[in-house]
């Protein structure tokens, strides 16, 4: 009986920023001596982040994005560090945030959704910075490493934006191997923030509801999405967001899969919802358009042969997988 | 085909702090004139919170926990207000946080898990304060109203603990009808925090894994649980927490239901996990004990006839429903 239940629902695909292979040893983070001993190990490495982007070696992919710990000091020292975890073979992996001044912007052009800013490390021709979306889309590092870089970016970006106590305004300090901040004035403890976001496909029989935001690449349609608010369930958030953005009412909601999304630190909760109305009314704020699409439409969008040139999000995004599970009839 | 899929997974029970019946009109929160007009309506009401507890009228349950807006000023004015939403009949509902000094502690005794502190409103014999857990457990207000009080407590507690900008330390101010705080110094925007928590039942054939924390009422066993961290999926968090707390390894994970939990503002994500090992090793920190239980054990715990006097959490908690779905063979 359990078998059948698990078979029905346990088909979570691995993609994007999920699948980090580290043992987080979260129960040992308070043990400063343990953490220091890990950091002193010769096989210890660190992901290096500056201006929200990983530093990578130059070369042909797949690139190795983890550097010996000594590299942190060679690059001028870290603002913050966090212990990410331990690899299966025993090697500890840390994350280090370098100050903005450690890198230099080479050109300021941005290219649509991906915002590919090229940054360099002055005096280090062997290193370059690439934004995490591009790293994932272009497969510059192994999928496992993408997940670890996402973990590194999420925790370090949180430190960078949370240097002060929200309760009393005093500066806070890093604790628990980078997984907590503490206020010495009011004694408040602050933990890394993870924002749950529902992302979903409303289904009306053989049609699905996709929308587009004006800031997206031309022609791209995707699942609707929005933050879960205090005081609501996942299912309530799904129905509220669909109704607000598209005017469509929904009944039952079914969970499919989840994905960490390090921009800055969301948990994407992927769902289907059964539509109970059909007339779309876009809000004009979140979305500039929303439409019903057939399976054939979506397959054509995947294959880049849609007559209007419409497209879907890339496979690094959970929206792609929600759509694919539906379009390929894999429910 | 969709029918079968939804039927398999869409059986989310309603309980605890879910099921708030309000239209949150979140797309209108920026419209100050709209919000002011709602607040001026004669049918507008407010949930009143002080020291993290709702103010209730004295009397026989079910009590009406929403007061005319004018009551806020009669009680000395609010520290913060938020628009919760609009009832189906059109009446707006707000939440108002009264300063600590507006209420007075009558007695300081606390009674185990529920922490039933009795507070009064000086000079107002018609009002009393009761903590939200007791309100839910004792059914002091209608289930719909429990959910709205949970929403009120979660958003107001966030304001109370986030008066300063985590980015620069400056005081922040309320915006968007109580759903955002803004920093006029560094221009950072801060949104209410909702912390995703996985809560789950590991299954080994016909047995389930329950644990207990030392601070819980004597004899109570429940699902394991823990915060989702940056960089992990729901499924990864489920496996990590079970392994850390009990030493049990797990494979597939299946989502069941979710629940908002306003202590202070979590989203409980209820799951099952298929255990792939059997030897329990409790960490001694999170848990003081963990054991395998049969369906018969759990049914006896529900019915308060377990030979060792063991019990489960109450029906207001999602853990109760995860256990009941499994014990009653409703997968």
Mind sketching the topology for me?
The structure is a homodimer of 331-residue chains.
Chain A: H1 2-9, H2 32-40, E1 45-50, E2 53-57, E3 66-68, H3 70-74, E4 80-86, E5 92-98, E6 104-107, E7 118-120, E8 127-129, H4 132-138, H5 143-161, E9 173-175, E10 180-182, E11 189-190, E12 195-204, E13 207-212, E14 224-227, H6 234-246, E15 250-261, E16 266-275, E17 289-294, H7 295-302, H8 318-327
Parallel strand pairs in A: 1-5, 12-16
Antiparallel strand pairs in A: 1-2, 1-3, 2-8, 4-5, 6-7, 7-8, 9-10, 10-11, 12-13, 12-14, 13-17, 15-16
Strand content of chain A: 25-35%
The largest sheet of chain A, given as strand count, sense and whether it forms a barrel, is: 8 strands, mixed
Amino-to-carboxy terminus distance of chain A = 19 Å
Classify the oligomer: homodimer
Rounded mean pLDDT score of chain A: 91
Low-confidence stretches of chain A: 7-12, 109-116
Order of helices and strands of chain A: HHEEEHEEEEEHHEEEEEEHEEEHH
**Continuous helix count of chain A:** 8
Shape by Cα distribution of chain A: globular
Q: Which two chains share the most extensive interface?
A: A-B, 78 and 78 residues
Summarize the amount of helix of chain A as a percent range: 10-25%
Judged by helices, strands and strand pairing, the structural class of chain A is alpha+beta
Please give the number of β-strands of chain A.
17
């Amino acid at each position: 009986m359990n078998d059948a239940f698990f078979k029905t629902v346990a088909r979570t695909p691995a993609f994007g920023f999920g699948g980090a292979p580290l043992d987080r040893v979260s129960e040992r983070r308070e043990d400063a001596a343990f953490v220091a001993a890990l950091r002193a190990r010769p096989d210890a490495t660190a992901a290096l982040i500056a201006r929200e982007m990983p530093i990578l070696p130059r070369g042909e992919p797949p690139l190795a994005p983890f550097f010996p710990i000594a590299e942190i000091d060679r690059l001028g020292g870290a603002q913050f560090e966090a212990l990410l975890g331990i690899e299966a073979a025993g090697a500890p992996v840390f994350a280090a945030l370098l100050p903005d001044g450690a890198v230099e912007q080479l050109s300021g052009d941005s290219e649509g959704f991906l915002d590919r800013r090229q940054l360099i490390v002055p005096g280090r021709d062997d290193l370059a910075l690439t934004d995490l979306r591009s790293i994932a889309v272009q497969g510059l590092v192994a999928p496992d490493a993408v997940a670890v870089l996402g973990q590194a970016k999420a925790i370090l970006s949180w430190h960078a934006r949370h240097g002060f106590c929200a309760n009393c305004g005093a500066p806070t300090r890093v604790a628990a191997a980078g997984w907590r901040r503490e206020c010495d004035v009011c004694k408040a403890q602050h933990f890394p923030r993870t924002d749950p976001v529902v992302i979903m496909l409303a289904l009306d029989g053989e049609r699905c509801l996709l929308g587009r935001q004006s800031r997206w690449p031309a022609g791209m349609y995707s699942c609707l999405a929005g933050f879960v608010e205090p005081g609501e369930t996942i299912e309530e958030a799904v129905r509220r967001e669909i109704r607000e953005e598209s005017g469509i009412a929904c009944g039952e909601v079914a969970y499919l899969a989840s994905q960490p999304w390090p921009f800055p630190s969301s948990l994407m909760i992927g769902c289907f919802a059964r539509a109970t109305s059909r007339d779309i009314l876009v809000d004009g704020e979140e979305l500039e358009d929303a439409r019903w699409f057939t399976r054939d439409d979506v397959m054509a969008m995947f294959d880049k042969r849609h007559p209007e040139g419409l497209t879907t999000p890339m496979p690094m995004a959970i929206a792609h997988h929600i759509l694919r599970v539906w379009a390929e009839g894999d429910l």
